[in-house]
Please model this.
Amino acid sequence: GRGVSFPVRADQSSLSSPTSSSSSGRRQLVAVGVIAPLVSLVDQTSSPSFAAENKKGFLPVTDNKDGYSFLYPFGWQEVTIEGQDKVFKDVIEPLESVSVTVFPTNKQDIRDFGPPDQVAGTLIKKVLAPPSQKTKLIEAKEQDVDGKAYYTFEFVAQAPNFTRHALSTIVIGNGKLYTLTTGANERRWGKMKDKLQTIVESFKLANV
Model:
């Protein structure tokens, strides 16, 4: 913001003015040193890539061991599921959930596995839906976040008595392949779509 840079500039000009004694000049330098990181923090929170961190109605999760973070809707409960790194789900609507899986990989980039639709198709059939369910990939795209390629895709998985409409994002970092998948019952997709989109878009890797 415009207002933010003003005090920093003022300090710098007073530093160069002959009237300031060296000790107060040092003090002002310290003040500038403190202000500068704050300024960058303020700027970050207003930039779109950090917008997800303080969304109303969501809670942040950070896994420092595996190096990822994401948001999940307020009210979802954490549950333990074999083979999943983290799972949160709605108590009343069990199909509304978010899960993260982490696999070791020697690949450096998700693009090494192939284009988004191909990778998404394989993952859906082999990992994200039971073999008994009929799956359909709706859309797959590649996004670049902080210099890393993320594949994000939308799909439906049809069981005999329900259809789950889901969104997934996959990325490689830290020698691991990360998959975050969230979804809802098809009949509630219209209502839940924006929330699920927020979850997927909030998924970020950190170096560990």
In short: Residues 2-21, 35-52 have pLDDT under 50 and may be disordered. The two ends are 32 Å apart (CA to CA). The first strand starts at residue 58 and ends at 63. Strands lie at 58-63, 68-73, 77-79, 86-89, 97-104, 134-145, 148-158, 163-173, 176-185, 204-205.
